[in-house]
Amino acid sequence: MRLIRVAAATLNQTPLDWDGNAANILGALADARAAHVSILCLPELCISGYGCEDAFLSPGTLRQAERVLAEVVPQTHGLIACFGLPVLYQKAAYNACALAVDGKLVGLVAKRTLAGEGIHYEPRWFTPWPAGTRALIRLAGATVPLGDLYFECSGVRIGFEICEDAWTAQRRGAELALEAVDVILNPSASHFAFGKHEIRRRLVLEGSRAFGVSYLYANLLGNEAGRAIYDGDALIASGGEIVASSRRFSFKSRELTSALLDIDLLRVRRGWPSTVARTPEHVAHECVLADFPFPALLPEATPAGPEPEPWAAHLKEEEFARAIALGLFDYARKSRSRGFVVSLSGGADSAAVASLVFLMTRFALADLGLQGLTAALQLDGVGTEKELTSALLTTVYQATDNSSSATRNAAAAVANAIGAHHLELEVETLVQGYVSLIEQAIGRKLEWSRDDLALQNVQARTRAPSVWLLANLKSALLLSTSNRSEAAVGYATMDGDTAGGLAPIAGIDKVFVRKWLLWLEQRGPVSVGPLPALSAVNAQAPTAELRPPSATQTDEADLMPYEVLDAIERSVVRDKRSPRETWLVLRAEFARYPQAELRTWLERFFRLWSRNQWKRERYAPSFHLDDESLDPKTWCRFPILSGGFERELAELDELGK
């Protein structure tokens, strides 16, 4: 029996925050030492931060990363720990992990499979390490091997799969199994997406079973660089069983997850790697030897295993609430904003955004306490939990003659229920001032029959300066309330309802927003409960309220049913289907609608999609929540000017209307 204690740490890092990142790393080392851990896995690129973007191309970034490595390695006395950082070798930069053993740097493994899909652009900055190659590198005052390596520390063999290395068909772990590795470390920067936790769990489980190893998976935590949210998700598996896992969406700067492993027992159970013949294609890994004083440990009672997350019954709703709440907290903290301002219209989108700020305060309080939360967000004069949301969130209802009492009352009810500081502004005089100014300039009256779009937009744009002014006065972050469905077709007023520094729900469709609000009204997150005041919002049909009340304006009458809009967007953006292919999908999925209407809606989508790319280019940054993002800077690129699918739409005539 040979027992060792291992751990995976989740860290909330920030790109290029050398001192803050180093402090988190040193804190994790101290936590591991206090927990009598011998092997510690830290996340990918934890020294520099994962989201450094083109700063990875700067020699200064690489030099600073090396300096921090030199600072943290001596603090590993009594530990085996890995540190992710960018490394320059010859004329190329590599995404690497350095292994330190008992205060000394012993070698580095470089990532072979770079993430280049979705929000990931690693091939822009890094070179994939060529399989089967090794070199020597001078780094942090030591000359050490770099490349396809594994490490033997006083008889315990350790190898690496660095994030994407484990997500490919030809996993690096299969090669390490042939070297009889005992422990595989997976330092990762795997951003949150709906349902991704289960995929990671299977990846770790299968890796530990198939390779006959103990597997340590350490992910980043929090909103690291602005768009991607990391849920933490540290996992430890051994021989095909999860033996420890972290809680996700923690508001703490770091969390440690540890387990006690029996190395000898795992070797007995795996057996097969020693009998597998090496093929000519086998990539040999060089062994780096290092001495390490593993402490003698006594057995513990066999744990029952990690408990399932308590909110699995409503997983997507809970994940949405917790991911956005954590994203908002870190965005405010790292941008040094002192709270939030939301233009609360009484509709679904703004109610969702305001409610998410409220949930942020509840979750953060549970993790950090009142003192920790107010210190993190630099809030002054907050002495009680009751004062917290009011200090953090200002909501504003801005009425014109086209605003209804229903939306005014709904906005007030939601603001009161969540404890926001709520204001009501009458902006009709300002709107009429702009209208009169232009009427005088062009020499005629503006009329709804002739100037509908302009008269709608001026109302939305008139509301923007007021909320910007409030945000500036409070040093707060103005939140835009745009959602993904409206972004797809440009159903928004630039410099109006799109005003803001962050668009928290721009990565999610309108159908889900409305479904989530109903869930929040009736059930709500575990440990928080429902918000019944949302019933005033949920009872209404979505409307911009920019036309006169007699027009009975609704969003779906202007566009199409949101369920149809979202289905078209998924077909076009996610599945890359043509208009013809999308038409066939619509006919099958929405047979309850007349085909003539479906055809009209399909054409409307493609024309609006093509015309409004310039709007999507100007949207405030949003959070990535799934693989259907419309963010042109990090996911869905489309030309600002295009042919607009004219030929493709004309070809639909062949299929009949």
Blueprint (SSEs and pairs):
Blueprint: E1 3-11, H1 18-34, E2 39-41, H2 59-72, E3 80-89, E4 92-101, E5 104-110, H3 122-125, E6 134-139, E7 142-147, E8 149-153, E9 156-160, H4 172-177, E10 183-187, H5 196-210, E11 214-218, E12 221-223, E13 229-231, E14 235-238, E15 241-245, E16 254-262, H6 263-270, E17 286-290, H7 315-334, E18 340-343, H8 348-376, H9 388-392, E19 393-399, H10 405-418, E20 421-426, H11 428-442, H12 448-474, E21 477-479, H13 484-489, H14 510-522, H15 535-538, H16 555-558, H17 562-574, H18 579-589, H19 595-611, H20 613-618, H21 646-650
Parallel strand pairs: 1-2, 2-3, 8-17, 9-10, 10-11, 18-19, 18-21, 19-20
Antiparallel strand pairs: 1-16, 3-4, 4-5, 6-7, 8-9, 11-14, 12-13, 14-15
Helix pairs in contact: 1-2, 7-8, 8-10, 8-14, 11-12, 17-18, 17-19, 18-19
Written description of the protein model:
- The protein is α/β, with parallel strands linked by helices.
- It has 21 helices and 21 strands.
- It has a seven-stranded mixed beta sheet with strand order 15-14-11-10-9-8-17. Strands 5-4-3-2-1-16 form a six-stranded mixed beta sheet.
- It is globular.
- Residues 272-277 have low confidence and may be disordered.
